[in-house]
Amino acid sequence: MTSSSEKSGKNERQKLPAKWQISPLLSLTDTNAIRIVPISGQEIEQIRLTYPFFVYAEIPAGTYRNPEQIPTVAIQNLMVVRADMPEEVVYNLTKELFENLPTLKKAHSAAGMIDPDSSWRGLPLALHPGAERYYREKRKK
Q1: Residue 19: predicted pLDDT
Q2: Maximum distance among all alpha carbons in the chain?
Q3: pLDDT tens-digit profile of 77-128?
Q4: pLDDT grade, residue 20 (50/70/90)?
Q5: Beta strands 54-59 and 33-35: pairing type?
Q6: 49 phi/psi in degrees, rounded to 5
Q7: Could you report how far apart the first and last alpha carbons of the chain are, in Å?
Q8: Are β-strands 70-75 and 54-59 bridged in parallel, bridged antiparallel, or unpaired?
C-alpha cells in the first residue's frame, strides 16, 4: 500500500495482509490519497514458499476507494490448541465453532471468511485428532 501523508509529505510503502475494511485504513482514506499496491502471482508464490499460511486473496473494488479489485495475500483464521488437549474437548470446541458460525458472523465480519467445507485444507499445522475427527464426520454427511 502506498500512502501519501498530507502531514508529513512522505510516501510510505508496505505490503499489508489484513482483513478488508480495517477501521484505521478506512480512516486513512478519509484524510489521505492512498494507492494499494497489488501483489503479483509470482510474488505470492515466493511469499508462500517461506510462509505457507498466506493464501491468495483479493481486496474487493471500492473497499478503500480502489476502482478495481486488488490481488494480495491474507492469513487464514486458525484456532490453535495444545497437542495434549483432550480429543473430546477439541472435537466439541470445533463442533460448537461451526454450529454457531451464523452467530459468529454477526459478531465479526472475519467469521464470514470461515468455510466449514474447506477450512481444513492447506493448514500450516497438523490437525489435532479431535478436530480431525470432526472434519472426518462432517465429510461423511
Answers
A1: 55
A2: 58
A3: 788 999 999 999 999 999 999 999 999 888 887 777 788 787 877 777 889 9
A4: low
A5: unpaired
A6: -65, -40
A7: 43
A8: antiparallel
DSSP letters of 75-131? E-------TTS-HHHHHHHHHHHHHTHHHHHHH-GGGGG--TTTTTTT-SSPPPHHH
Q: Helix 87-99 to helix 129-140 angle, to the nearest 10 degrees?
A: 50
In this structure, the strands spanning 33-35 and 2-4 are: antiparallel
Rounded to an integer, what distance in angstroms lies between the CA atom of residue 36 and that of residue 46?
A: 19
Other C-beta atoms closer than 10 Å to the C-beta of 100 total: 12
Taking only the tens place, the pLDDT of each residue in 32-54 is: 888 888 998 899 999 988 887 78
> Taking phi first (over 0 means left), then psi (-120 to 50 degrees means alpha), and beta for anything else, what does residue 32 get?
beta
Q: Read off the DSSP letter of residue 62.
A: T
Q: Which of 61, 62, 58 is nearest to 44 (CA)?
A: 58
The answer to whether 71 and 117 are in contact (CB under 8 A) is no
pTM: 0.60
